[in-house]
Design brief:
The chain is of the alpha/beta class. It folds into two domains: about 190 residues, Rossmann fold (3-Layer(aba) Sandwich), CATH 3.40.50.720; about 90 residues, UDP-galactose 4-epimerase, domain 1. Helix content is about 40%, strand content about 20%. The protein has nine helices and 14 strands. The strands form four sheets. The chain has a seven-stranded parallel sheet, with helices on both faces. A three-stranded mixed sheet has the order 12-9-14. A two-stranded parallel sheet has the order 7-10. Helix 4 links the parallel strand 5 and strand 6. The radius of gyration is 19 Å and the shape is globular.
Length: about 300
């Protein structure tokens, strides 16, 4: 019997890479999202369903229940749209969990966010608790609410959920509104593009390493009911990344200081990833320097 996986948000950057890997493993893959996949992220062997997970009645009508695994990347991307952000990231997750609660799935992976830690100092650890009432963003509130709901269902009914808290993931086929693709595009076009001073340190993980972590979680019961950080654990200064990309491409005109930092912006943000190694035997295999070259080479083909 083929393993069956439902990828919520399977038309996005992360969903595409997980779907591609699952197809390589000869799994039966279904994607649900609110839009059709872009040409650059279309996979012929994936069954695509158009569905808004915040609409509970539609879930009951359109989703079959005999999946082995569910991975939830779903959620509205434009976080300035507060209502849609809350509905998709919290209500949508709650609807999915309620639907699959008694369906005997083997694993439900919720893609969480480091934003759930609020202003806790780095390296951030899974036992760092942040008061949800102090979170300023609707996105952070929705994500932490989803986490709390899932953990409650694990305690009450042993719902086989795992929350993976991601930091910054990058790689081929990511949209240009993200940091690394935007810098690559600016350099490939040899244009003047705005940047902050670049003093911040951020944690970047290559997408293949994330997919590997998800696959390990799907088949590991020890991950059920757990929050697990997924990142490199090695923060890199933003300015260094911009200059590295510029040097590899050998052109580009970053305008440092053009973008001002928010007053409440955290300057150093990265996770402790020891729990991932202990529970799911995972740690990143890719180096940043190798991964950025692979990513640049992809965008060279399409720009």
């Amino acid at each position: 019997m083929k393993k069956k996986i439902l990828i919520v948000g399977g038309t996005g950057f992360l969903g595409y890479h997980l779907a591609k890997k699952c197809i390589e493993k000869s799994w039966d893959v279904t994607s649900i999202s609110t839009n059709k996949p872009k040409k650059i992220r279309f996979l012929s062997k994936v069954k695509y369903l158009i569905l808004d997970i915040s609409k509970k009645k539609l879930i009951k009508k359109l989703i079959r229940f005999d999946y082995d695994y569910v991975v939830n990347f779903g959620g509205y991307v434009n976080h300035n749209e507060k209502f849609k952000t809350y509905q998709s990231h919290y209500v949508g997750c709650k609807n999915l969990a309620d639907f699959f609660l008694d369906k005997k799935i083997k694993s439900f992976i919720q893609i969480g966010s480091c934003v759930e830690y609020g202003y806790n100092k780095s390296p951030q650890e899974e036992n760092n608790i942040f008061n949800i009432n102090k979170l300023k963003s609707t996105y952070g509130i929705a994500k932490l609410s989803a986490t709390n709901y899932l953990l409650q269902k694990f305690k009450e009914k042993k719902f086989p959920c795992t929350i993976l808290r991601l930091y910054l993931v990058f790689g081929p086929r990511q949209d240009f509104n993200r940091f690394i693709p935007s810098i690559i595009k600016g350099c490939l076009e040899d244009s003047l593009f705005p940047c902050s001073l670049g003093n911040q340190f951020r944690d970047f993980l290559y997408v293949d390493d994330l997919v590997n972590a998800i696959l390990k979680c799907l088949t590991n019961k020890n991950s059920h009911g757990e929050i697990i950080n997924i990142g490199s654990g090695n923060p890199i200064q933003i300015k260094k990344i911009v200059l590295l990309i510029k040097n590899i491409i050998k052109q580009g005109k970053p305008d440092f200081g053009k973008i001002k930092l928010r007053k409440d912006e955290i300057l150093k943000l990265f996770p402790n990833i020891k729990k991932a190694e202990k529970i799911i035997n995972w740690k990143p295999k890719s180096t940043f320097s190798e991964s950025i070259v692979k990513t640049i080479n992809f965008y060279k083909k399409i720009i």
